[in-house]
């Protein structure tokens, strides 16, 4: 049985009679009931992703109202969730300042779902992740690349780590749904957890805003304020970790677009802030 057929079978068991209306990803499908209601069925690759997304839906996404899906059902043994389906599509390559402004407003609401909390585990996590992704990306890095990455990771390790808030941690246009009338919504919360809010700015900063400062300005207008100096420094140095993950995953998957995103981030990191 294919993955999409298995998800369709799970949806029929949980929702009743429904048809498979679209395959949205390797483990994500949309189904339609006899009454015309549409739902998204997703199976997580790991237990941690499943638990994070379920927690986010149960505790945080309510702050986004209709701009996020609603959790409909959970099958924990199978690591499957069913959510409402949003009207719209991902338009990652043609997003407007309006979409970025709305995304900024949504992210601020998500970040402020709960009060600030200390992150006593962050330095250990950073050291572990830096070592892991450096080893994974090693064969894609020159000696000069290694030096640039090492300098930024060292600077990051020396910084005062601010308190954390609920974070999305894959915040980029591929996870924004834009409706036909231009309204933006946020999806895919499998990485969400308490973390540094600056991490939610990093991919936007290097992959989009570097070439489109107008989109940065629109986003921060929606977010309600400019980045603080600490957030600016953190998101800059965190680019080293993002470059490593992009290069490693791009190489492993044969994904030239992701590899180029890592290379573009590295080129920017060679310049002074």
What report would you give on this structure?
It contains nine helices and nine strands. The protein has 273 residues and is α+β, with helices and mostly antiparallel strands. It has two domains: 3-84, Phosphorylase Kinase, domain 1, CATH 3.30.200.20; 97-269, Aminoglycoside phosphotransferase (APH), C-terminal lobe (Aminoglycoside 3'-phosphotransferase, Chain: A, domain 2, Alpha-Beta Complex), CATH 3.90.1200. Strand 7 and strand 8 (184-186) form a beta hairpin. Helix 5 (143-158) runs antiparallel to helix 8 and helix 8 (229-253) runs antiparallel to helix 9 (256-269).
Give a quick precis of the structure:
The chain has 273 residues and is α+β, with helices and mostly antiparallel strands. The chain has 9 helices and 9 strands. Strands 1-2-3-5-4 form a 5-stranded antiparallel β-sheet, sandwiched between helices. Strands 6-9 form a two-stranded antiparallel ribbon. A two-stranded antiparallel sheet has the order 7-8.
């Amino acid at each position: 049985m294919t993955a999409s057929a298995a998800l369709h079978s799970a949806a029929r068991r949980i929702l009743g009679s429904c048809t498979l209306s679209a395959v949205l990803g390797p483990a994500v499908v949309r189904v339609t009931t006899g009454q015309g209601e549409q739902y998204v069925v997703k199976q997580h690759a790991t237990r941690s992703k499943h638990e994070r997304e379920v927690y986010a839906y149960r505790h945080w996404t309510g702050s986004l109202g209709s701009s996020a899906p609603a959790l409909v059902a959970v099958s924990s043994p199978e690591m499957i969730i069913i959510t409402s389906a949003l009207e719209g599509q991902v338009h990652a390559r043609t997003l407007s300042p309006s979409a970025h402004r709305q995304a900024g407003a949504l992210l601020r609401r998500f970040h402020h779902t709960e009060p600030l909390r200390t992150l006593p585990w962050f330095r250990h996590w950073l050291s572990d992740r830096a070592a892991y992704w450096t080893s994974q990306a090693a064969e894609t890095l020159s000696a000069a690349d290694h030096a640039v990455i090492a300098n930024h990771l060292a600077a990051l390790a020396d910084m005062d780590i601010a308190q954390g808030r609920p974070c999305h941690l894959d915040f980029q246009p591929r996870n924004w749904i834009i409706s036909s009338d231009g309204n933006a919504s946020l999806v895919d919360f499998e990485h969400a957890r308490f973390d540094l809010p600056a991490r939610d700015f990093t991919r936007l900063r290097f992959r989009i805003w570097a070439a489109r400062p107008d989109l940065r300005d629109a986003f921060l207008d929606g977010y309600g304020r400019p980045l603080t100096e600490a957030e600016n420094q953190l998101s800059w140095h965190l680019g080293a970790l993002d470059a490593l993950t992009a290069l490693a995953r791009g190489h492993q998957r044969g994904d030239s677009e992701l590899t180029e995103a890592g290379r573009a981030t590295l080129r920017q990191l060679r310049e002074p802030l």
